[in-house]
Design brief:
The complex is a heterodimer of chains A (185) and B (83). With 185 residues, chain A is an alpha+beta fold. Chain A folds into two domains: 98 residues, Alpha-Beta Plaits; 50 residues. In chain A, 49% of the residues lie in helices and 25% in strands. Chain A contains four helices and four strands, in the order βαββαβαα. Chain B is mainly alpha-helical. Chain B has a single domain, classed as Irregular (30s Ribosomal Protein S18). Chain B is 37% helix and 0% strand. Chain B contains four helices and no strands. The longest helix of chain B is centred in the last third of the chain and has 16 residues. The chains are: A alpha+beta (185), B mainly alpha (83). At the A-B interface, β2, β3, β4 and α3 of A face α4 of B.
Chain lengths: 185, 83
């Protein structure tokens, strides 16, 4: 992405964000957007970019609303009109929050709404992958435990069989002892 | 598209606090946007406070712009003031 620079020395680039409640009708939202865009265009502002983030949950309640819609604009406008636009945006109905930022040097336009959705998808995929890995590890552990138990059972079964059979060395020794003439049994 | 930046990753995790490199300088970030929620989230703690740069390793220049970005995103309802 290339950095944006103002076309003339008099104008500057501003980023404007608007937060609308998601509970209001589409007519009201479109009206609100028209009005807010009109404030810029009336003063000779030139729209460079417009991004709609869509429905998004809020971190805290704003005027009783838990969900909102974000609209982010990038305008090129003279700095004298910014205060007037800010005041008129304050009086706008159905507008929860608005912010106008003078962009710094080397400012690049990014669609943060799209970026956020991509990040969410990636995070969900990673979560699923981690869960699958855990499930596989647990399976392996269970299989190991079962095999260990089975081998232990086999050992205990084999052990008494070995004790019942008399070893040939022992018999030979006994016979030797019995057959010894020096012993007075 | 931009990267999600998080404080000290990889070999930097072993380094002691106070001697960690700036993750923004490392990634070549110039401006921190208020709308970059995934990055800002990594630099705030459970209660919503901004993490100290002694622990994150952020340089003073980027810490100032980070603070501004967090304040703006708090105002716009992206990040909570206090949990």
């Amino acid at each position: 992405m290339n950095a944006i620079t103002p076309t003339s020395q008099e104008t500057r680039i501003y980023e404007c964000a608007i937060l609308l409640p998601s509970s209001i009708s589409d007519k009201e939202t479109s009206e609100c957007i028209k009005n807010s865009e009109g404030f810029f265009t009336e003063k000779g502002g030139k729209q460079i970019a417009k991004h709609e983030w869509g429905r998004r949950g809020l971190a805290y309640k704003i005027k009783g609303h838990t969900q909102g819609r974000y609209f982010v604009y990038v305008y090129e406008i003279k700095p004298e009109y910014i205060k007037e636009i800010d005041d008129s945006l304050k009086l706008e109905k159905n507008l929860l929050r608005h912010i106008i930022i003078s962009t710094p040097k080397n400012f690049e336009i990014v669609d943060w709404g799209k970026w956020f959705k991509e990040w969410l998808e990636k995070r969900d995929e990673e979560k699923e992958r981690v869960e699958e890995e855990r499930a596989e590890e647990e399976k392996k552990k269970i299989i190991k435990k079962v095999s260990k138990k089975a081998s232990a059972v086999e050992k205990t079964e084999k052990a008494p069989e070995a004790s019942t059979e008399p070893s040939p060395d022992l018999e030979d020794k006994l016979e030797e002892i019995i057959s010894d003439e020096d012993l007075n049994l | 598209m931009p990267k999600v930046i998080s404080p000290f990753t990889g070999s930097d995790q072993k380094k002691l606090p106070g001697s960690r490199p700036c993750p923004f300088c490392k990634a070549g970030v110039i401006n921190i946007s208020w709308a970059d929620f995934p990055t800002l989230k990594n630099f705030t703690d459970y209660f919503g406070n901004i993490k100290k740069r002694y622990y994150t390793g952020v340089c003073l220049k980027h810490q100032k712009s980070l603070r501004k970005a967090v304040e703006r995103s708090r105002f716009m309802g992206l990040i909570a003031f206090r949990k």
